[in-house]
Design brief:
The chain is mostly helical and 103 residues long. It is 78% helix and 0% strand. Keywords: Membrane, Transmembrane, Transmembrane helix.
Amino acid sequence: MKYLYSIVFGAALGLGSVLLHSSLAPCGLILSLISTVAGIWSIGRKWGGRTYRTVAALAWIFVIVRAGFPGLGQEFLIEGTPIGISLLNLGVLALVLAVLLPV
């Protein structure tokens, strides 16, 4: 059950990052990255284990990658602007940091 909660929480963090990253150009990106690190780290803090943080990080990556592909109406949720590319690159670095931080 903890794995399911980790997947749902990681996907919710990813959705929040997708929706928040482009609002108020640098502030939204910074807030989404900070919330990603804090959220993924808190999963390991709550349930004690790097495995749950890794599962949540993989769910986050799945949501972010899916948002980067065109949808049914050919719309992109993460565009190829510097903010969108920064979310992809810095988001992966933030996930590595969140998974490797001690509990």
